[in-house]
């Protein structure tokens, strides 16, 4: 598909590989030993400007844990100034007061992962003692500030209380709760090489991900399919370039032409498992994730 027909509408901006949690299933292999990479603040601002110029409508700041990135507030304000809609995917354990202010001022939406209604169960996944207490408290704070918030429940281990986690979030007032299974990327792959077959097939369709070193990927999970680097090449040239064409052809060869699946739902701000899409993506065909979390019962917006 040509760049003219495949408009870039959404981008994940992975501003850091640093995370205060150490989840076994982390697709990005983030950890307390991660770094902010080589992208400078001017690099990120330039990239955001390019996205806006290309007609993108939404960006999602991710990590690692994006709230640990010292310049997140500045980048959010810059993206807001260009007219982009913004979501931050955070574990919600480390929100500074000034970030709350920025979230409300810039109309930021939030998304978070939640693994159990049990603190012991949740903390066993994150490997960070006290993470459940802090995440749950900040879910409540976000809702009290009328900040839109989505929750994602990922089935990671046997016996995990995923249904109870979803019900807990719903009881708190979270309107959209998605579910997904562990996917074999990053630490979750346990050393196995990633393959295109493990992707959903929707990669590079109207969306891309940009990492802490400037590498551009077809999605956050497809980081083994680098299509360029924004520190070396304008994003428009990358999006319409030969490498992009090769990668999209390779994906189509495995998944078929026209695949429109938007799974895994917890990574996309425009897709709850049963919710309507935002204007960025006018089509949605989410798949059952096989987590034991019934999307039909917990995914519909309130």
Automatic annotation (TrEMBL):
Pfam families: Radical_SAM (PF04055), SPASM (PF13186). Residues 14-148 form the Radical SAM core domain. It comes from the Bacteria. InterPro entries: 4Fe4S-binding_SPASM_dom, Aldolase_TIM, Radical_SAM_PqqE_MftC-like, rSAM, rSAM_sf. The keyword S-adenosyl-L-methionine applies. The keyword Metal-binding applies. Residues 202-248 form the 4Fe4S-binding SPASM domain. Keywords: Iron, Iron-sulfur, Metal-binding, S-adenosyl-L-methionine. This is Radical SAM protein. It comes from Streptomyces amakusaensis.
């Amino acid at each position: 598909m040509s760049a003219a027909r495949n408009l870039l509408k959404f981008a994940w901006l992975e501003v850091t590989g640093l995370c205060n949690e150490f989840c076994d299933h982390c697709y990005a292999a983030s950890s307390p030993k991660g770094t902010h990479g080589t992208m400078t603040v001017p690099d990120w601002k330039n990239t955001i400007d390019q996205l806006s110029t290309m007609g993108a409508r939404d960006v999602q700041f991710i990590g690692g844990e994006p709230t640990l990135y010292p310049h997140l507030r500045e980048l959010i304000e810059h993206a807001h100034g260009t007219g982009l809609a913004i979501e931050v995917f955070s574990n919600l354990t480390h929100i500074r007061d000034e970030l709350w202010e920025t979230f409300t001022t810039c109309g930021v939406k939030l998304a978070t992962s939640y693994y159990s209604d049990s603190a012991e169960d949740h903390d066993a996944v994150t490997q960070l003692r006290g993470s459940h207490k802090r995440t749950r408290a900040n879910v409540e704070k976000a809702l009290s500030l009328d900040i839109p918030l989505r929750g994602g429940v990922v089935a990671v281990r046997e016996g995990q209380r995923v249904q109870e986690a979803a019900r807990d979030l719903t009881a708190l007032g979270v309107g959209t709760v998605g579910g997904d299974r562990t996917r074999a990327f990053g630490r979750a792959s346990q050393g196995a090489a990633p393959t295109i077959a493990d992707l959903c097939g929707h990669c590079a369709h109207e969306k891309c991900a940009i990492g802490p070193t400037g590498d551009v990927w077809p999605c956050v999970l497809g980081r083994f399919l680098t299509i360029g680097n924004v520190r070396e090449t304008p994003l428009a040239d990358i999006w319409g370039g030969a490498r992009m064409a090769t990668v999209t052809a390779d994906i189509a060869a495995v998944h078929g032409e026209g695949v429109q699946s938007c799974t895994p739902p917890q990574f996309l701000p425009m897709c709850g498992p049963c919710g309507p899409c935002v204007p960025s993506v006018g089509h949605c065909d989410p798949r059952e994730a096989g987590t034991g979390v019934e999307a039909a019962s917990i995914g519909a917006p309130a």
